[in-house]
Give the backbone structure.
Amino acid sequence: RRLSRGRSRRQSPAGILLVIAVVFMIYFGWIADSLYRGFGPLRLGWLLVPMALLFISFFILGTGIYSVNAVLFDARDLDQLFSFPLRPLQILFAKVFALVAQNWLVGVVVYLPIMAVYCYHETPAVSFYPFAVLGFICLPFIPICIFILIAYLLNLITSGARARNLINTVITLALIAGTAFGINHIVSGYKASTISSAALISQLKSFYPPIGDLTSGIVNGNAGDLLLGLLWNIAPFVVLCVALSFGYRALWSRSKAVRKAKRGKLSFGADSPYLTLYKKELYRFGSSVMYILNSSLGMILMTLFVILAGRGGKKIQMLESSFPADMKILFVLLIFA
């Protein structure tokens, strides 16, 4: 018994995850401090706030598309939950808030050290702290709301795993391209002579209002902008969940029936150990969207950046020239972030 207890303590996944989280928090804190040293002399230290919000949003957008469908339609406990006297809206909200809580745990690893660095250097007003907490709480709602809608549309179109993976890949590439073109749009509207906090916040509001209004509310202590940002993030989430809950049970039943009907027989064969392992890994690579994207994402992003840089070379050069000589590394970090 003592031996088994000792092994369970040494192999505790919670302890390992905590150590990894602390390491990442230190890393993000170091990055935030390095960025502030570039932004601070320009009186743009507040840019750490929207950078943290945007980074978490894009992280959720990049990972949520593969987890939402599994939680809403492929979870094993849905049979039991639908057998209970529960409304589909209650089940849907429970599932969705599990996703939200997941992203809170991941997001705090990024958000907390960046906000700590900002507060250490800027010493903001007392209202900053509750406003920053409220902004973080509602941050995952819009990305998850988008992927709930995508998951519903995918299950209406097809319930096959291969077709869903293919469509998910196309959507992920479209998000990457949309992000690249969005950055290009911001750069195209940038003027070095008009760099100011008010102008940047106004441009952020026009580019992505849920983050822009939250940033204005948190940084400026503007309760009106904060309330508008909360509405931007929460209202679509609640309305969409209520609207889609009406067809949730029927769509889940259809998806479950199609999955059962498409299960085929197992095939067996005889090969050498190396060839067997090679075929196994090759099949895993071909059937996993994440494997394919992880191996090709850098090439795709660099290709998009080269194309966009070629089209807007003068504008990027103008943006680069606005940074002092000792802060060129900050420009590189912003471009490749």
Remarks:
- Residues 306 and 313 are 10 Å apart (CA to CA).
- Confidence is low (pLDDT under 50) at residues 261-266.
